[in-house]
Design brief:
Blueprint: E1 3-7, E2 14-18, E3 23-27, E4 41-42, H1 49-61, H2 77-86, E5 95-96, H3 97-103, H4 110-118, E6 131-132, H5 145-154
Parallel strand pairs: 1-4, 5-6
Antiparallel strand pairs: 1-2, 2-3
Helix pairs in contact: 3-4
Length: 167
């Protein structure tokens, strides 16, 4: 059964989706979501949505750095490899697209890694916000660079006064 709920957070309203057994989506910008929840049931009390909301609350409060939730990532095999690799980026650190490509065994795949990163259906938990440009710049984030900046500041990667070039 496809179920969803909304969760309020310091970076705005989040959309959580699940199939009744595992989390299938966490969207930081629900108005840009790739699919519709038409015909889905809204139920914040169903697992794993309730547990995801609890763990996100702890993350935003600064008391949780890792998540322990069942995830079901749907995508191509390459996308799944990239997303799995994203889960290896430790809290409070960043990697470049090039670093990810090298870890996947193809140092020339930076663009493909970037595209897969942008299609990540479970943001924050699969921390695509921790990927930055080779020069240290904040590049691309489906939820918007302001949210990426907030998340990286929250995790201690950026200082509160850090400025980024929008656009």
């Amino acid at each position: 059964m496809n179920t969803f709920c909304h969760v309020d957070s310091p970076i705005g309203r989040l959309l959580l989706t699940c199939d009744g057994k595992a989390l299938t989506g966490l969207f930081t910008n629900p108005s840009r979501k790739a699919h519709s929840t038409d015909g889905w049931e809204e139920d914040a009390g169903i697992e794993p949505l309730a547990e995801t909301a609890r763990q996100l609350s702890e993350y935003f409060a600064g008391t949780r750095r890792e998540f322990d939730l069942p995830l079901r990532l749907q995508g191509t095999e390459f996308q799944k490899r990239v997303w799995q690799e994203l889960t290896e980026i430790p809290y409070g650190t960043t990697w470049s697209y090039g670093q990810l490509a090298k870890r996947l065994g193809n140092p020339n795949a930076s663009r493909a890694v970037g595209l897969a990163n942008g299609q990540n259906p479970i943001s924050i938990l699969v921390p695509c916000h921790r990927v930055i440009g080779a020069d240290g710049s904040l590049t691309g984030y489906g939820g918007g660079l302001e949210r990426k900046h907030w998340l990286l500041t929250h995790e201690g990667v950026l200082s509160r006064g850090f400025e980024f070039a929008a656009g």
